[in-house]
Structures are given as C-alpha cells and as structure tokens.
Amino acid sequence: MEPVKNRVTDLLKIKYPILEGGMAWVGTAKLAAAVSNAGGLGTIGSGNMDAKLLKKQIDSIREMTDKPFAVNVIMLNPHIDEVIDLIIQEKVPVAILGAGNSSKYIPMLRENGITTLAVVSSENLALRLENAGAEAIIGEGMECGGHIGDVTTMVLVPKLSSILSVPVIAAGGIANGPGAVAALSLGAEGIQMGTRFIATYECEAHENYKEKIINAGIRDTIITGQKMGHPARIIKTKFGKKIAKLESSSPEEAEEALVGSLMKAFLYGDEESGSFMAGQSAGLIDEIKSVNDVIEDVMSYILKNYDLENNVDERRR
C-alpha cells in the first residue's frame, strides 16, 4: 500500500497513522521494531525502568530498525528524570508521555528536538498539555487496558478534536479496521492499539497471556485498583477477582499483591498472581497474527472505507 499523508504521518515521519500503545514489560524493543518496520510507530514501554535498562532497549531497537520509534514515559516512574535525560541524550525520535501531568517535561524535550506527544483521558489535561507544547494528543478512552480514566473513547475523541488545534490520536477499544474507521470518523487523525499487538507473533509475552486475549469475550476484563486511586483494566482471572475483593477489606494487602504482578503475567503467564493487562478490545481478537498482518488488515479496511487524506473534519475548516 502507498504511504498515507496526513498531519500524524507527517509529524511522526511514518507510513501509516497507527501507533503501538505504550505497554510496560510488553512493549519491548522487538515488538516496537516490528511495528515501526510495518509502517506504524513502534513504542518501547519504559514503565518503571531506570536509564540503564532503557538504554539497552533503545540500543536493541536500533539494531532492528532504522525507522522512527517512540519511548513511552509514565509520570509514575520513580526514575523519570534520568529517563527523560536519556531520551534527550539518545535523541530518541518520539517521546510519548502519559499517566499524569507531563507539562514539566514537554518543553525540555521539544527544545532538544524530540517530537513529543501526550496521552490524556480528560479535556482539561489535554488543553493544559497542548498549551505546554505537546505536538499531538492521544485521547485514551476507558476501554483501554492498563491504567484507565473514566471517559469512553466515543465521547473523549470528538470532544478533544473539537477543542484542540494539534492532531488527536484515538486509543482505547480499537483492534480492527471498523474500530479504526469509527475513531477517524469521530475526528481522530490516527489510531493507537495496544491489546491487538500483544496477540502477535513478535510480542514476547508468555503464550498464556496471548491465549487469554484471544479467548476473552467483551465482558472478560475487570477494573482493579479503583479504591487505591490507580484503576487498571486486566483480564478477568481468579487473581483479578481476589484483588477486587481485597480492595474493600484490606487495601494494603491488595497493593502488596499487585507488586510485580504484570511482570509475572508477561514472563511466566502466571495465572495465580499475574495481572494480564488488556483492554475490552480483547473480545474482538480471536487469533494471533504477525504485526505486519495486523497493520495491513487495519490499513486496507481504512483505505477502502475512509478518505484519510482528504476527509477534513468540518470543525477544522
């Protein structure tokens, strides 16, 4: 397929306006390189990495692709300052900042030539981060996996596209062509997928993780951590149900049980103590594919059903 030209592909210097969501543990250099090589924007999920660990991932992805890639940085990372410094030092093409107010870091990244995007789940934070200099905003609805907000993609994306001047990229609940076209019709100029990329051959997650996604129905996720102030969507398992109960009776015990739980799911497929983070879109995924096939399938559907290059939202005319 021919490259698509719009504000998102121009900004990120990519072939298609498809981004890999930033996923701690799951978003390795190998998966990110596969997404970038297939024409999207691959993303290393830095999670709670320190600079030393992240440097290894950056070195690794540069051995596997010469295409643009991103590093996702969460504001909750205790090593965030050294991670930001490393991104600048390594001249990472794109930084994607999420899980909090990233206005402190946007100017310094941009001053050093790093294309900077921000993930939001509310209109107020979107406006604040646009004013801080974010070059595109990823509106992530509560359908997404991992840490979530409380507004759906269907409501968030059209709101953001009506109040922002920078491009909006839709995330949360998107796993196929119809979902992508729906998001674009709401005013987005690109899409981001996370859960769909877990169920790929290139993803290094344990096979149990992938199997849980392709076997999940649309109601097979559960939200944990609400009472502890950091809600996250995971696949419904005995462990997830246990955490939900512990939140009410013993929040401290629930917090302790969650420590390292994503790592246990990713590395070992541990069903007894692992958090299999995934979005509601898991219910739309029924097979493991190559990253290239995922992107080609989504893009071919978009190009048959939506004019990406010429369909300008009336609110922007």
TrEMBL record:
Keyword Oxidoreductase: yes
Swiss-Prot/TrEMBL keywords: Dioxygenase, Flavoprotein, FMN, Oxidoreductase
Pfam family, one: NMO
GO molecular function per UniProt: dioxygenase activity; nitronate monooxygenase activity
Protein name, UniProt field: 2-nitropropane dioxygenase
Species assigned in the record: Petrotoga mexicana DSM 14811
